[in-house]
Amino acid sequence: MMCFDLYSANHDFARVYKPLLDPLGLTYPQYLVMVTLWTGAPLSVGKIGQRLGLESNTLTPMLKRLEAIGLVRRSRDSLDERRVSVDLTESGRALEARAADVPNCASAATGLSLEEMRDLQIRLRKLQKGLRSS
Amino acid sequence: MMCFDLYSANHDFARVYKPLLDPLGLTYPQYLVMVTLWTGAPLSVGKIGQRLGLESNTLTPMLKRLEAIGLVRRSRDSLDERRVSVDLTESGRALEARAADVPNCASAATGLSLEEMRDLQIRLRKLQKGLRSS
DNA sequence: TACGTTTAAATCGTGTACGATAAACATGGG
DNA sequence: CCCATGTTTATCGTACACGATTTAAACGTA
C-alpha cells in the first residue's frame, strides 16, 4: 500500500532534517513555516496555512512559539482586523543565511540524483492534485 | 523543495483516509497498525514499530487505545518477559472484512493509474532507502 | 553465582495535527 | 443603519510523534 511508503518516507525525511535544524533551534514544521515566510513575508496565518495544508488550530500555537523565540512578529492587519499578519523579525531574517545549507544537505541525504528528485517531485504533485480533487 | 511535497501529500492521504476510517472507529495511524497485524498477528511491539518506523513511546499508548476498544490483546511473551506480544481479538480479526474496501477506495482517490502508483511506490522506496542509510 | 551490559517496553515532557466550536470582524441586502 | 451571513483566527480536547529517561528482563563473563 502506497500510504505506508508515503507515511514512513515523510518520517524519515523529518529525521534527516532534525540534526540540521537542531543547531537553528527549529523543529521540522517550524522550519517549513520559516521557509514559507522567507519567500515573502509578511503573510497572513491563512496564507501560510494554504501553502502548508495547515489551519489556524495548528498554526496559532506554532506561530506563538516562533514569536516567543523572537523569529516572527504577529499583529492584526489594520485593513482587516480579522487577519493576523505574520512578519519576520531581524533575527528571523538573519536565520535564513544560517539555514542556507539545509536544503543542500537534505537533498544530498536522499541519495537521489537531481533528475530523480525532479521526477519524484512531479509525481508527488500529481498525486496531491488527485487526492485534493477527490 | 521535495520535503514540502512529501509533507503535504502525506497529510492529503490522511485526509482521504479519514472518511473511510471513521465508520470503523479508527484513526489513520491506528489503521496502519491494524493492517500490520492483519498480515500476521501476533507481533511484538518492536516488530510493529520496525514496520512503521515507530517506537514504543508512540506505540504503547496507541496499542492501549486499540486494546481499550477491544481490537487487540497485549500480553507479556512467556519466553522473553521483556517483550509484549500484540494479538488480534475476534473483533479485531472481524474488522479486516469491514475494511476490505478501504485500500481500493484510497487508491481510486489518488487519481493515478496502477502503473503510476507502482512507479511512485518504487521511487518512494528508493528515497527511503537513501534517507535511512544517510 | 554475581554483576555489568544489552535489549524491550513504558513513562514523561514538548510539539505538532485536527475536528468542533467560539469570538471578532467584514460585507451585502433590506 | 441593522441584521444575517460568511470569513479569519483562536481555543479546547484528543491523538499522534519523538527525545530522554526509567524499569525490568535477558545475557555474557568471570
Structural features, described:
2 copies of one chain form a homodimer. Chain A is mostly helical and 134 residues long. In chain A, 67% of the residues lie in helices and 9% in strands. Chain A contains 7 helices and 3 strands, in the order ααβααββααα. The first copy, chain A, has helices at 2-21, 28-38, 45-52, 56-68, 90-98, 102-110, 114-133; strands at residues 43-44, 72-76, 84-88. In chain A, α1 (2-21) packs across α6. Chain A is globular. At the A-B interface, α1, α6 and α7 of A face α1, α6 and α7 of B. Chain A binds a DNA duplex (30 and 30 nucleotides) through α1, α2 and α4.
Strand and helix layout:
Two copies of one chain form a homodimer.
Chain A (H helix, E strand, L loop, with lengths): L1 H20 L6 H11 L4 E2 H8 L3 H13 L3 E5 L7 E5 L1 H9 L3 H9 L3 H20 L1
Antiparallel strand pairs in A: 1-3, 2-3
Helix pairs in contact in A: 1-6
The structure holds a DNA duplex (30 and 30 nucleotides).
Beta strands of chain A, count = 3
User: What profile does the largest beta sheet of chain A have?
Assistant: 3 strands, antiparallel
Strand order within the widest beta sheet of chain A = 1-3-2
Helix-and-strand structural type of chain A = mainly alpha
Quaternary state of this entry equals: homodimer
Mean pLDDT of chain A: 91
Shape of chain A: globular
Which H/E pattern describes the elements of chain A? HHEHHEEHHH
